[in-house]
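Obj: model holo form, ligand = NAI.
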Amino acid sequence: MGADGRKSIFITGAASGIGLAAAKRFAAEGWFVGLADIDGAGLKLAQAAIGAGNCSVHKLDVRDRAGWKKEIAAFGKATGGRMDALLNNAGIANYGYFEDQTDDEIDRQLDINVRGVANGARAGLELLKATPGSTLINVASCAGLFGAPKMAMYCATKFAVKGLSEALDIEFERHGVAVKCIMPWFVDTPILQAGSQGSNENIADAIRQGGSEVYTVEEAADVIWTSVQGKDLHWIVGKAGKQLRFAARFMPGSIRKRMKAMALQG
Ligand code: NAI
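Output (holo structure tokens):
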């Protein structure tokens, strides 16, 4: 099924959570959506939710550069060589002290959250350049604003996505491609169930204990939709995230104190 002149977006991690909600939102706004994910069964459900006429389906592991090339080519075929936006959203988390994470957990977070985003930006650039007014959207996190305990590797990957976005915002201006960096506070998705191997402790429990707010996937999708129409580079999801960004900027010492107290509580 083709885009038939509609605006188009390619979304990674589109089978679940924020990616799926963004796919629904852009389709509802009349866009054609490329649904990409490693989860084939989830993709089928996403396609059914959005309607086969509004999307193309791409089984893709964002770590696989050859896979990116193939799926972007297929998407370009469906859209007549256009891509108005690329949403680099796929990501994973493992929750637990740094030394308790397995080597595989360390590598997977780096490979999916950082290399996967760089792979997408490189594979998608040609179509983005060919599309006037196009946007590259990278999903980082408020974990890219300050270090947090039991999320060391995750924080490292999200700082990297933020840095990559800031640099590409400057570089891609000469191609006419805008760059947006989305930084959600906690959003209610399966990623919050992620513990480290051999541990049943998860992020959701830690958030509840900390008494923090958790936002909906629709709120996150709304920020992503708005970012495409807006001029800013950084977009925070959630009031709690905006407050923490302010604190991280102007009172970094107090955030570190709070985080250290959290780490000591175990
Ligand atoms: P989710 O777990 O609901 O969805 C992630 C999707 O990515 C899944 O469909 C999964 O199959 C897919 N995926 C995982 N590895 C992949 C790979 N190698 N190749 C292709 N697809 C892959 O998680 P959620 O929460 O929707 O996360 C989306 C993004 O938002 C991630 O980058 C995450 O770090 C970020 N984020 C999420 C927050 C939250 O509280 N939910 C807060 C801040 C950022």
